[in-house]
Amino acid sequence: MDRHLPFDELHNFRDLGGYRTRDGHRIRPARLFRADSLGKLTRNTADWDRFLSLGVGTVIDLRHPWETERRGRIPADASFAYHNLSIEHRPYDQAALTPDIAPGPYLSERFMEVAEDGTKEIAAALELVAKADEPLVFHCASGKDRTGQLAALVLALLGVPDEVIIEDFSLTELAAPALLADWRARNDGRSPTWPSFARAPESVMRLFLKALRSRYGSVDTYVTTALGLNATALSAALRTRLLEPQPTTWPPLTYRKAIPRDAPLLVRLRDTAALWQLARGIRQWQPGEKNETHFRDRMREGEVWLAYANSSLTGAWELWWDDPAAWGPRPPDAGYIHRLMTTPHTAPPGTGRRMLAQAESRITAEGRPYARLDCLSSNPRLREYYESAGYQVVGEQGAKNDGSGSPYAVTLLEKRLV
Q: For residue 1, what pLDDT is reported?
């Protein structure tokens, strides 16, 4: 479920595998990684063993040489080749920015500077990715901006849609608290003056892709005219090395009821789903809205279920036995389904529909004849999804208040269970 690989000292080490292209292929897992500074790795540690187990043959360090001198570089090893390609030529101090600076416009402008200043280094990095026969990882300091920019170019050349590129950039949001804690530890407990330090709002990548296309027409044209590379040949080489057909068979789903120690996993899943939505312009969920206490309360007052394909988490949902905030006082004749979540890009096709059916079976087992749910009135796409699963619109609640903020309008949907 989680693209972040677990390390003790690294917080933003991610596998780019599994992302789908427009033509129906996907990036092969465990072939291309992005990370925060590998200078934090130390020999003879569990982190070092974890890193070596990935079989990485090429490491691209996108930091300035002076950064590698101050903060260290990955220890040399015969198993991989190391390349220091500083794509940023005009350094700036994000931590010292003033609170009035909006991250989207500001960082997207810095990305455009990098795109035009660092052409030699960006070209060299892309060629290394295209030629590598073994797994490759590229990184900067936080694994956010320079790393995110190179990832965006690679993903675009592979044919990955913009919304996925934007989503991939924003996944640093999940690592932001740990990255901020590291900065504070290095700076005597002080906090950066810029509230957006270590953050990766989707607007940054959205504005950068728009600006790059506005100036060059397309990513391919940028690669050809600014980088001096054959974009067609480069794209073909990347696709040959990194893409594979989509799976045609999937393991069956299994289910289990969540227990309190699953709460951190559920928070992570919901925050990941929220970032998926934001990358597609859906302003329904925000990361950080639901904490571990929320999910433990739902387990105590109702049920929370997890879905797995083999040992991999593929989704979850909440099942309530009443919902007065949306439906008002009702007799005990229904189960109320909330927070139906699937793992982006890795859940088998149809996982959401299968989880709905499983929730409905559970409601039937309790002797209740109705399944009910609600969705934001401003989200017609989600309403259509539930209607296609047999739910009917039975009303509107113009001012639902779940205690987390301002009231909002929802559409009420119901399904008679057989």
A: 60
Q: Which H helix or E strand runs over 151?
A: helix 145-158
pLDDT at residue 43 greater than cutoff 90: yes
Listing DSSP states for 2-51 in one string gives -SBPP-SS-S--EE-TTPBPTTSEEEPTTSEEEES-GGG--TTSHHHHHH
Angle between helices 202-216 and 263-279 (to 10 degrees): 30
DSSP 3-state of 217: coil
Q: Which CATH number fits domain 14-245: 3.90.190.10, 3.40.50.300, 3.90.1310.10, 1.20.120.340?
A: 3.90.190.10
How does pLDDT run across 152-180, given as a tens digit for each residue? 999 999 999 999 999 999 999 999 999 99
Rg (CA), the chain: 23
Instruction: Tell which residue, 43, 3, 14, 7, has the closest CA to residue 143.
Output: 14
How much of the chain is helix, strand and coil, in % rounded to 5? 45, 20, 40
* 403 pLDDT more than 90: no
